[in-house]
Design goal:
heterodimer; A: 2 domains; B: mainly alpha; 0% strand
Chain lengths: 212, 93
Amino acid sequence: MRSPMAIKTESPVRHDDELLVQRLKARDRSALEDLLRVHGAKLYGVALQFMRNEYDAREAMQDALVSVWNKIGSFEGKSAFTSWLYRVTANAALMALRKKKRRENDVSLDATASDDDELPLPALRLSDDGPLPDTVALTDELGEQVRAAIDRLPEPYRVVVLLRDVEELPMSEVMEVTGLSEPALKSRLHRARLALREALLPYLKGEDTQTL
Amino acid sequence: MTTIAGFFRHLFHPCECMRTKKLLYEFVEGELDQQTHRRLEQHLSDCAGCLEYVNSYRRTIELTHHHGLPEAPMPPALKQKLHEFIQQHPDLK
């Protein structure tokens, strides 16, 4: 059961989005420009949170634009266009992240898929080191702390939090894009949430949690 | 906040508290069978420490969803690059 705040109440397709979809389906390339004008900031936020710097976020956004162009025919309007758009961008960002990892010859995103439960939780504790994203809008302190905490999660944990708790992709889709089994995904997500909870505890204690 | 009474109840029900922590994910996601879910709810009504723990877990998920994405405007240089990309990329025809 998702929390009440996590439930999206958007109507399937907003009127202006409907027009945008029609133009994209009609292969009107200027619709991509308008898409960026209307939804660009949000898509940039998605790409930046995955990629952590503007240069890589650009690569992810370019891949997302190509995906939107190629896959718009499969969008049937059953879900909100924005949700579909964010999902496409998140997928593109994840793929770009994997490409980058391969280039860097680093560990696979799935490296700890099978033995998550065996890792001690302190290994996930958030630290003060590690780079922050290039650009983070500091609209409020709590929001800033939440984003900083997510950003400091080890990558495999950050990815599942972004896909599941931020983007709210269905578990089946998160399993598909990460290649994780259901138990491994649940375990990883739970541990990431616990690490975030621990990092945010000073802020949570300031709230009246009894009323939640 | 944990009350003194809640703290002592926590001490007197260690098994139920451990069980709550173990089933936390399934409880919050609504994946428990009805009987186990009710039993956990019953414990939460009696244990302030566990209630606070569960609530803070739920609140973490809410905050993550609500604040998880940076609300940064696209830098002008990026806008320009993406504009050029749309105009020139062979796959976008």
